[in-house]
């Protein structure tokens, strides 16, 4: 019996990546294709064009999640899903997310090319706004699909450019007019997401595939420090309510709290800005974000609780408001899915290992819905969220081959 | 003999402040009237209208410095100048700079009302871009007038909104079409600038006028820290080149270097921003400014020298570039001017003291040109560079009365 994996076309998969890379290309090798921008819509429309040319069905839901469906012999059976996202960071790469979408679509094409049928429908999915850098929160689309949140909760959210999510969703949905509208959250029987590792471990180990065991806990916060503006040349330091100086004290204390000789903690201040931003005015306000992640559930929960306390304790003469944007406890993937990925990699002579995910992914939202897993492939030097992000065409194809056989098994179970 | 001070009209002086306060009014009591904006041009045009209605001569130079001239009996004698600036901080007040311009103009009107003549011409001047928050450097106009720099050096400077100084100068000059064009740097025989103190000392001492002895040394720097962007969830902290973390180490070390139990040091980080500014991306770049001031020439020079060294020493895995935007050593005012201000205040029964200026002012640029001094009046709680900035109408008038007699003495010497 021919395996689905045999029909994976490495060149086609690579070419598809390069085609999508045009939308939002920065000219420096990377892309700025933030969620629900014109460029994001163009990338979706391109995928939709490939799908309709193949005769696959297209669906879109209220969160603008886009589904390419290959029907099975059991029309009403819960579907097997695979996918990721097409949106990127402001200075992002050509593989983070895109690979998950295009490898799932490649599987559909490979099955079609090889004339292989399956019982359950298989759908390649584009989740909306995984990155969360233009609109909060990240993983908007998969959150809504999973039923964790209603899209109505987010419709009034605004981007830094003043755009409103409601309008951007409508415009984006209109850019794939061939897609039939359906309600979020169809029954799902399994989900596998492929992704570049976004870390250095596979490359360092000389391996091609990671059978991902789960996702570490992740949290993000926005901190607003309020002081008082004043003249930089006159106000004595002891009389100041300097929002920058108080923010510095908070960050120093947070660094101390999260210091970790084992280097497992991931603690990042990604956004930090002082206002009004005049060189000779004492800042009256500072806004910064905190991103904290850890795989240990108890340590994660305790530290998340401490973050607000530490900011309060170090505010000095200023006020502080700590807004929790997102707290997600560590999530474990399904053992049968992990094991099948490992086994299939072995059967295909693709060197693999089990590993945890450092990054958050849409897959985390699918864990409560169905047996869920992820397949990692290496990226050069572990670099991601960076225009220098790079992956190898043979590695991408290897991951897609494991995915093809794993999805087909699920779809026939 | 009637004194010029007797003709100062407190109500008119206050009303002029309130009229200028309309341009760029934020609706929260303050103004955003940054240099060479439309609002700045409107404020200048309003003053020009008052001046031509009075029959005073108007001049403008290549740096858009605007001069209102009351001629003396000796037409070719070097002029006595008095003035300040109409531009403000992004969240500025209604007195910082404006008072210096309007009190000088009030003196011209008072002399006119009282029919008092003088030998030398007296000019009220509006210096361009004292604040330096939209275009670097601050004190652009007085720098060019003093001959320290040519306006040609600054013409290509850009504002954060992409505007170019050359264009904004031309547009601003065109907004006072009644002003005759003249070359920068006419001969000057004396300069006195009135200003709100922008600090708490006069108010605390219960005094109305400060006879300013000089201006402390001031310096400003822009620091650019270059790291590498990466994924906040995956890259181990030990492998990061986190521009934010390196910038924090620099700022901590700078705070330590400038720690001062006597609270004489003025050290301010006014602008600080991490790029690309995504919550889940390790910052690849941070830009921040340093404003450092001190009255002691030796300590000032030594610390200015240390600032770049400290940034380099604390860059960790990142690169750093420290650009010096401005270094001005402490400047002393003319003893005869200081003494005459003190004496006149005494004659007018206005309680006064000698004091140094914490803030930089256009007057500093005039020190090499002619006998120079400044008159301070209190502002509420020392608050300035802030929309809550407030001054008392009687204090403003008291300062203008001292100014009137002092300018008239200079103009008849």
| Rg result of chain A | 23 Å
Largest interface: A-B, 71 and 71 residues
Largest sheet of chain A: 10 strands, mixed
Number of strands of chain A: 17
Taken from the alpha-carbon principal axes, the silhouette of chain A is: globular
Question: Between the first and last Cα atoms of chain A, what is the distance in angstroms?
Answer: 17 Å
Secondary structure layout:
Two copies of one chain form a homodimer.
Chain A: H1 10-20, H2 38-54, E1 57-60, E2 66-70, E3 79-85, H3 98-114, E4 122-127, H4 140-146, H5 165-174, E5 180-181, E6 188-196, H6 201-205, E7 209-215, E8 217-226, E9 230-231, H7 243-257, E10 266-268, E11 272-275, E12 281-282, E13 285-294, H8 297-313, E14 319-328, E15 331-332, H9 335-347, E16 352-357, H10 363-366, E17 372-377, H11 393-412
Parallel strand pairs in A: 1-5, 3-4, 3-6, 6-17, 7-16
Antiparallel strand pairs in A: 1-2, 2-4, 7-15, 7-17, 8-13, 8-14, 9-12, 10-13, 11-13
Helix pairs in contact in A: 1-3, 1-11, 3-11, 7-8, 9-11
């Amino acid at each position: 019996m021919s395996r689905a994996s045999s029909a994976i076309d490495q060149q086609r998969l690579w070419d598809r990546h390069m085609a999508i890379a045009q939308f939002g290309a920065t000219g420096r090798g990377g892309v700025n294709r933030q969620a629900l921008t014109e460029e994001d819509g163009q990338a979706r429309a391109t995928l939709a064009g490939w799908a309709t040319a193949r005769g696959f069905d297209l669906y879109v839901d209220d969160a603008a999640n886009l589904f390419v469906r290959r029907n099975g012999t059991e029309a009403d059976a819960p579907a097997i899903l695979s996918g990721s996202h097409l949106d990127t960071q402001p200075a992002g790469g050509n593989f983070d997310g895109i690979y998950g979408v295009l490898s799932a679509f490649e599987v559909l094409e490979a099955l079609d090319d090889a004339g292989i049928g399956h019982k359950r429908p298989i759908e390649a999915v584009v989740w909306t706004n995984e990155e969360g850098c233009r609109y909060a929160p990240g993983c908007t689309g998969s959150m809504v699909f999973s039923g964790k949140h209603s899209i109505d909760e987010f419709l009034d959210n605004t981007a830094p450019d003043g755009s409103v999510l409601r309008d951007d969703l409508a415009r984006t949905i209109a850019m794939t007019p061939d897609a039939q509208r359906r309600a979020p959250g169809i029954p799902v029987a399994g989900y596998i997401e492929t992704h570049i590792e976004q870390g250095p471990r596979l490359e360092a180990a000389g391996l091609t595939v990671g059978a991902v065991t789960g996702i570490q806990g992740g949290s993000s916060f926005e901190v607003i420090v309020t002081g008082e503006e004043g003249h930089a040349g006159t106000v004595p330091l002891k009389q100041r309510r300097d929002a920058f100086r108080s923010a510095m004290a908070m960050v120093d204390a947070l660094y101390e709290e999260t210091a970790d000789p084992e280097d497992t903690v991931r603690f990042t201040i990604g956004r930090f800005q002082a206002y009004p931003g005049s060189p000779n005015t004492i800042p009256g306000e500072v806004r910064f974000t905190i991103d904290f992640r850890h795989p240990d559930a108890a340590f994660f929960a305790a530290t998340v609780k401490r973050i607000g306390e530490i900011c309060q304790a170090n505010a000095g003469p200023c006020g502080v408001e700590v807004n929790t944007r997102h707290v997600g406890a560590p999530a474990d993937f399904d053992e049968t899915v992990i094991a099948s990925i490992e086994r299939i990699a072995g059967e295909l002579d693709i060197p693999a290992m089990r590993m945890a995910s450092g990054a958050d992914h849409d897959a985390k939202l699918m864990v409560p819905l169905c047996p869920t897993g992820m397949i990692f492939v290496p990226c050069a030097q572990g670099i991601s969220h960076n225009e220098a992000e790079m992956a190898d065409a043979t590695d991408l194809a290897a991951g897609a081959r494991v995915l093809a056989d794993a999805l087909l098994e699920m779809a026939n179970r």
